[in-house]
Design a protein that fits this description.
By secondary structure, the chain is mostly helical. The protein has seven helices and four strands; from the N terminus they run H-E-H-E-E-H-E-H-H-H-H. Helix 2 packs parallel to helix 4. It is elongated and about 95 Å long. Its EC number is 2.7.8.5.
């Protein structure tokens, strides 16, 4: 018990520090990412060919590689802000809410981007998005209610696995697209994402169960408090009525 309390005492609550600025940077990086993603998608819809095959594989447009570079930089900032927060033992309300949101936005956009080029299976991207909407919505509500749930290992492993898988797919798949067994190789490239998806849903279910327990506990405490206040008020009103009736029934003094 002493060790736990000592660890908690060492954690410093920071208003807005370096880790938060790295989170902001990661979110800002998604602005040009979205621009290039939208541009690529629009060009593809209009029949513009953004890639062509050669003997060495598929050659992609500069838009593709710019977004890959942006995503890699975003993942580096994610590592750095986590490293800095752990090293300095600092936490902040901003980081609790926006750090996971920034991570989800980056990975979701990269999934959609790679799905646009058919490097990632679309159902995988959709299932990731559905999971994140459910979990993050629950998390934001729980944080507003001051309900904290620590990250589980499934979620941590998933984050690392998915980030690395997206980088490997984005860099590696273009160079094997000319192979005769491309579809099979592409499946092998997507296996880490599939595993990450399973881990994501497992961690998501664990999160939701813990958040639900915390929310139910908070609601029960609130109900108990309100019920106790109502009982005290009723008792007070009853005492006041009794005192008033006693005063009315007491004989008046003789003049």
């Amino acid at each position: 018990m002493k060790n736990k309390s000592q660890k908690k005492q060492k954690i410093i609550v920071s208003k807005f520090g370096v880790a938060n600025w790295l989170t902001v940077l990661r979110m800002l990086l998604m602005i040009p990412f979205i621009v290039f993603l939208s541009t690529s998608f629009g060009l593809i819809l209009n029949g513009v060919q953004l890639s062509y095959k050669t003997n060495k594989g598929i050659v992609l447009s500069i838009l593709y590689w710019i977004n890959v570079a942006i995503f890699i930089i975003a993942m580096i900032t994610d590592f750095l802000d986590g490293f800095y927060a752990r090293k300095t033992k600092t936490v902040s309300s901003f980081g609790k809410i926006f750090d996971p949101i920034a991570d989800k936005v980056a990975t979701t956009l990269m999934l959609l981007f790679l799905a646009t080029y058919n490097f990632v299976y679309i159902p995988i991207a959709i299932l990731f998005i559905i999971r994140d909407i459910i979990v993050d919505g629950t998390r934001v509500y729980a944080i507003k209610k001051n309900i904290e749930v620590s990250a589980n290992w499934f979620g941590k492993i998933k984050t690392i696995l998915v980030s690395l898988a997206l980088v490997v797919i984005s860099i590696g798949v273009p160079f094997i697209s000319d192979k005769s067994d491309y579809k099979y190789i592409l499946f092998y490239f997507n296996i880490p994402l599939i595993i990450g998806l399973l881990l994501a849903w497992i961690s998501g279910i664990i999160y939701i169960i813990k958040y639900t327990k915390g929310i139910n506990k908070e609601l029960l405490q609130s109900y108990t408090k309100n019920d106790s206040n109502a009982t005290n008020k009723n008792n007070q009103d009853q005492n006041n009525n009794n005192n008033k009736s006693n005063q009315d029934s007491s004989p008046s003094p003789n003049c």
